[in-house]
Amino acid sequence: MTHATVLISGASVAGPALAYFLHRDGYDVTVVERAPDLRDSGYAVDFRGAAFDVLDDLGILAEVRRHETKMRGTSLVDEAGTETGMLPAEAFAGELEVPKRELTRILHRITTHDVEYVFNDSISALTQHDSGVAVEFERGAPRTFDLVIGADGVYSKVRQLAFGPHADAVRHLGLSGAGFSTANYLGLDRSGVLQHAPDTAIYAFSASDADRLTVSLSFATPTPALDRCGREEQERALRTAFAGRGWEAPRLLDAMSEADDFYFSSACQVHLDRWSQGRVALLGDAGYCAAPTSGMGTSQALIGARTLARHLAGANGDHTTAFAAYEAELRPYVAENQATGVEGAAMFGGGGR
């Protein structure tokens, strides 16, 4: 018996989770990832609500818990550094927080013997036929799959090829910023500190590595255009935005320029009328990103993966029915998370939309 073949683009969280469930249901799964290896980036991910049921279904809940950062909370301070309030750990860390690299590593380990992983490659073209999807790759030979799933992030290549330009789906929430790490000179111990003004915010915390301080500098921006600029221009925009700011701003700006893990991104959401086109469907941030400011990205990815797999398994090979049921079930949950993402962006200096 020939099993149905599925290509998943993206080897972060949503892709490998879906791969696990699809393989369990009898599919032959291939995961393609443009990075040369597992990504070691990303500071921490958190889990809330039904995501715990998915971790349990994956058989990894106990292992994930062993990597808990055990954050204690976040102090709110003014520009003089005086504490003005306190946010509970759940505000940023959810019900459980772990370093993202650990979750990615675990998901890869539980799938690597049953799923084909192709690193250092990316989809370059998709052509749908009645019986499958012809896929061209940047490096590998062309192949045909029964289904293709885009789990490749906000700027999804699968979405771009099958649904249209990024501009048609990506909505900027009026907020951009940089992340990096430096020495923990603030002496934070599994805790964070947040200082925000109307158009800027500084968030610093120390979690799993007591010697390192993870820093986020965010500021209001009219468009996500800076995402496509080089680091020099991004740093210049940050220095302009934080010019004259007190507290630790000058020192953190200097640390930013010395950081070897500098990362810049904008808070965006993905909104589409449909999450599938023929034999191609979208999962996680690629189809319905709620923005990092929602605190729900990882939970949404895991819940989406299991929901999609469950409907595919229950549709007896009818992908059209499965995709429609997956979307109908998940959309209300996504809408709530996206509303939270807009509110969170405003808290960190964004205008929201």
From TrEMBL:
Keyword Magnesium: no
Domain of life: Bacteria
Sequence ranges assigned to domain FAD-binding in this UniProt record: 4-333
Keyword Oxidoreductase: yes
GO terms of molecular function: monooxygenase activity
Entry-linked SUPFAM superfamilies: FAD/NAD(P)-binding domain
Name of this protein: FAD-dependent monooxygenase
Native source species: Streptomyces endophytica
